[in-house]
Amino acid sequence: MEGEYWNAEMELLSREEIEALQLRRLRDTLERCERSPFYREWFAAAGFDPSRLRSMSDLRRLPCMDKTTLRGDDPRRFLTVPLDEVVRVHSSSGTTGQATVIFHTAADIEAWAQLVARCMYMTGVRRRDVFQNMMGYGLFTGGLGFHYAAERIGAMVIPAGSGNSKRQIQLMRDFHTTVVHIIPSYALYLLEVFAELGLDPRADTDLRIAFIGAEPHSEGLRKRVEEGYGVRAYNSYGLSEMCGPGVAFECPAQQGMHVWEDSFYLEVLDPETLEPVEAGEEGELVFTSLNREAMPLLRYRTRDLAFVYPGECACGRAHRRISRIKGRSDDMFIVKGVNIFPMQVEKVLLGVLGVGSNYQIVLDTVRSMDEMRVLVEVAGELWRGEVKELNELKRRITDELRQEILVTPRVELVEPGSLPAGEGKAVRVLDRREHAKGVGDG
Ligand code: ADP
Ligand code: ZN
């Protein structure tokens, strides 16, 4: 029997019920934290007495933690269970420095699988589906997180892992893959490989759903994936410090990602003052895990910038929705005094007809001045076409970028497939300036 919800009890909680459950679970979490040497010191240093917690906002008497807090101590000191109850260790990808280590008990792994299953089921994945998981397996959470969830649903899993594009396409065709999990920048790249092979994913595969996440991407990129593959593409957000994927996920309404608030308490804070911002206002996402056993994290600063959608979702779930991630505060770079996020550049590029599937931002110091170049791969037909059209394209991109980011970058059109395309998270900015990055890391 297939219902409409994977976990109707949790998915259909009202706001009041969510808030009551959060308070109960937070109390349990804090109680557990008192068994951890790290948290005992953390609470003492802040003069924080967990037994006096009356409301969720009392949590604000604790300072926030971040990757430095995790890197600064032996990860075993965070444990609230004996080490022999730990069954798995994962780590972050290390996108912004040394990877952080997270421990899991068997119950943590099961709760995580259930959360991701909830996400997949919500978008329509069922037992009859064939799920090709094109994320890296291993310490990175993107692979195993979805793997277990798809098995819980009863779909057939192809644990393809990342890379090896021709084999990926072969697998899709041999096993009639219907659902994929793929890094968004790689999804665009793979479209080119389909074209090289003379294949059209719309006609030559059975794909119907793509989960794209793990890195910031624009609405334009989603549209290209949806059109190129003939699928619905859903944004998937998570971080290894909370569990991995499964923290927030788009529902069929595709209007923001529901944060599973039965498992995570979300604060959106002004990154400077650490004061909460209103719904609709952008801030930094800060999470507290509410049912983690081995290694709960309290008020963990993600550096990810987004806003909460005001109002209710058409799907009826009351779990709050976050917007697409604009980027990490560390992704921001400053050129000639102007703050720029790579996503602003992507938003412009992918809105322009004739732009291919990859781009890179290169920053240099030229005669003591910042120079910003944007290398843009051109669509195949256009690259082989007339010079006049290429010049026209370059002019349009330059104009639109100037309007969006307020500085005029040097746009260089390059051959399709010539920019480095990784299998993991895309590196969008190459900053080779003498004074390193113009941004403090906070
Ligand atoms: P690392 O922090 O080293 O990259 P993780 O693998 O834990 O390691 O990655 C989590 C981070 O990836 C998030 O904090 C966020 O910056 C980014 N991320 C994950 N999913 C998305 C998404 N759907 N959109 C934008 N960024 C995402
Ligand atoms: Zn919804």
Question: What layout of secondary structure does this protein have?
Answer:
Blueprint: H1 8-11, H2 15-33, H3 37-46, H4 67-71, E1 86-91, E2 101-105, H5 106-122, E3 130-133, H6 141-153, E4 156-158, H7 165-175, E5 179-182, H8 184-196, H9 201-204, E6 209-213, H10 219-229, E7 232-239, E8 244-250, E9 257-259, E10 264-269, E11 283-289, E12 300-306, E13 321-322, E14 327-328, E15 333-335, E16 338-340, H11 342-349, E17 355-366, E18 369-378, H12 380-383, H13 387-405, E19 410-414, E20 429-431
Parallel strand pairs: 3-4, 3-5, 5-6, 6-7, 17-20, 18-19
Antiparallel strand pairs: 1-2, 7-8, 8-9, 9-13, 10-11, 11-12, 12-14, 15-16, 17-18
Question: Could you explain the architecture of this structure?
Answer:
This protein is an alpha/beta fold and 442 residues long. The chain has 13 helices and 20 strands. The chain folds into two domains: 1-328, ANL, N-terminal domain (Rossmann fold); 333-431, GMP Synthetase, Chain A, domain 3, CATH 3.30.300.30. The chain has an eight-stranded mixed sheet with strand order 4-3-5-6-7-8-9-13, sandwiched between helices. It has a four-stranded antiparallel sheet with strand order 10-11-12-14. The chain has a four-stranded mixed sheet with strand order 19-18-17-20. Helix 5 (106-122) crosses helix 6 and helix 8 runs parallel beside helix 10 (219-229). It starts with 7 loop residues before the first helix and ends in an 11-residue tail after the last strand.
